[in-house]
Amino acid sequence: MSEEYGNDIISLMDEEGNETEYEMIDAVELDGQTYVAMMGSYQVVILKMVEEDGEEILLTINDEAEFDAVWQAFEDRLSDEYEIIN
Fold it and tell me: What is the pTM of this model?
């Protein structure tokens, strides 16, 4: 797990305006793109980190093939520390 991202708490708002806190548990870089895995309320959320107007923002991964590749990378990295249920 990347120490750079350990214990970072982030509040995210869903489409309905509900705010939930997540702990950033890991980050991985694939093909020059950074992805983060965050845990909140017993679920893991994986988002893409991009820079927009000089600011880092987190985006949903809409491409199924991209998500599958990123999920596999996180599953390989985190399976020793967490029970992963597909």
Answer: 0.76
Spell out the per-residue pLDDT of the chain, length 86, in tens: 344 444 688 888 878 988 989 999 889 999 999 999 998 887 889 999 999 999 989 999 999 999 999 999 988 887 766 666 66
- Tokens matching residue 81: 């520390």
> What is the DSSP annotation of 8-69?
EEEEEE-TTS-EEEEEEEEEEEETTEEEEEEEETTEEEEEEEEEETTEEEEEE---HHHHHH
Tokens coding 5: 């991202």
